[in-house]
What we know:
Layout: E1 27-32, E2 38-42, E3 48-50, H1 64-75, H2 80-87, H3 91-103, H4 105-115, H5 120-138
Antiparallel strand pairs: 1-2, 2-3
Helix pairs in contact: 3-5
Bound molecules: zinc ion.
Residues 11, 13, 16, 18, 42, 44-45, 47 line the site of zinc ion (ZN).
Amino acid sequence: MSKLVSVGSFCPNEECVEYGETDRGNIIRYGKTGEGRQRFQCKTCKRTFNERKGTLFYNRKTEEKDILECLALLAEGVRISSIHRAKGIKEDTILSFLREAAIHAEQIEAILMDDYHISRAEIDGLWTYVGRKEAEKTE
Ligand SMILES: [Zn+2]
């Protein structure tokens, strides 16, 4: 499985001079969060962050794997109501994954194609689907 971002190898603070730079040696382990997630600190800007900060799905309760599976199923044309029944995730939540995914489209496309064998056409369908759902909301 390819990882979206190797957390702990770069600083996710956009104001930091080392922002996004990997393997600079500026990131150190900094204990654990209350939920048991590894916490890191950037020695350059002194900010701390946890495993999920800087990844696509920061602050989401759902596992990244489940989110990607939802997106893969949607891309394959599975109805959102069926995914909701199969996975027990609210339809609104699934739509929010999709919206967030659209922001990080390039990363998501690479993962869906490499790890989930989703085709280019199916991915295009996915983004069309996001657009359509957004249009429905504003009507
Ligand atoms: Zn930093």
